[in-house]
Amino acid sequence: MIFFIIAFLALMIYSYRKDIKNHERYYNGAGKKVLIYGGLIVIIFMAIRFFSGH
Fold it and tell me: Average pLDDT of 10-38?
């Protein structure tokens, strides 16, 4: 199991480093979008909890 985890992580790191130029081109600004949508979900959840009385 430990060998599998080490091999899996090594392959993931290798793959990420190989595709880093594509990540910069296609996922530019993705972090901001995740924060905005995640924040909206949290705000909606809090509003529902607040107005439902729980």
Answer: 88
